[in-house]
Amino acid sequence: MESLAPEDPEKIGPYRVRARLGAGGMGRVYLAETPAGRRLAVKVIRAEHAADPRFRARFAREVEAARRVNDFYTAPVVDADPDAAAPWMATAYVPGPSLRALVEREGALPPERVRELGAGLAEGLAAIHACGLVHRDLKPGNIIVAEDGPRIIDFGIARALDASAMTATGAVIGTLAYMSPEQVEADEVGPPSDVFSLGGVLVYAATGRGPFDASSPGAIVHRVVGREPDLDGVDPFLADVLARCLTKDPAGRPTPAQVLADLRIAAHDPVPSAPPSSPPVPSPATAPPAPGPASSGPTHSPPAGPALEHPAPQHPSPAHPAPAHPGSVHPAPAEVGSGYAAVAVPPQGPPVTVPPQARPGADQARVRRRAVLA
């Protein structure tokens, strides 16, 4: 928040301006108050965009559509005047830092906090898409981390810009790192583009950097379009989910609902983030009896190395499966059970790798996560 400058307006519509909240390629955001003293965030569009009749028409349609979005996930639209000399829109003021400001101040967020953030953003995107909107500018600076969860702000305005305006000097420099390949290339942009941006935002939250960061806009575009995302430092559970969000092909990305489901599974999965140093020892209840005279001897724990003095059991290993995971750990035993069956040791021969496409949805994500951890 900054003090007002001499060139700033004293009033916007009926609202008295109190301070600057921020600025972007399309305009400036002010803290304002109603006559009764209620706080608002008022966005005023820059003159070069206000002079474009097509922009005004699209901006008016987006304002009306934005009113339909559930304010639980966004800053609700309170008032707007797309026909003013400088078009403006007023939303409820949501106290809290932007995600960018939070990470700059505190550093990368821990995995559990990134999962909570991702779940809230996925719900918000689902609500926005259900209203027929595509955000097109989801980035750390457009997310307010409020006490009751993240709020997505500034949606709809970016959609009002056509391709020529999006390539204007200074219009997209700050958001290139979170744009989808199809948006960078000015192709058809739909809800999957927002999912790509969501993946980039969560990489930033988890590491303090974007997945395609580079020293110049041209280098960023090259990485977004042709390079794999940099997921170094991302928790293994999260890395699988985010890699799918950042798939180049829009058809290969999950929906926000699928992202939410995968994040919930990651939050409840009891498997550690690193594999154990040695295989688990079977419990006495399931371990096969030692053959021959040794079975009548005193009970003892299996040695750490190979038991050369004991012959191998003479019955097939499938008669003694690995101990099952306790069902109480998982909220959905049936679904989780099928996921564990996919990676169980087969009756004969070497281990079989189950291809990711064999398990759609949450089971597919679980199989890939366990493959990463193996």
Automatic annotation (TrEMBL):
Keyword Oxidoreductase: no
Keywords annotated in UniProt: ATP-binding, Kinase, Nucleotide-binding, Serine/threonine-protein kinase, Transferase
GO molecular function, one term: protein serine/threonine kinase activity
Ranges annotated as biased composition (Pro residues): 272-292, 313-324, 347-358
Domain Protein kinase residue range list: 15-271
PANTHER family recorded: MITOGEN-ACTIVATED PROTEIN KINASE KINASE KINASE 20-RELATED, SERINE_THREONINE-PROTEIN KINASE YBDM-RELATED
Name of the protein in question: Serine/threonine protein kinase
Organism, scientific name: Actinomadura logoneensis
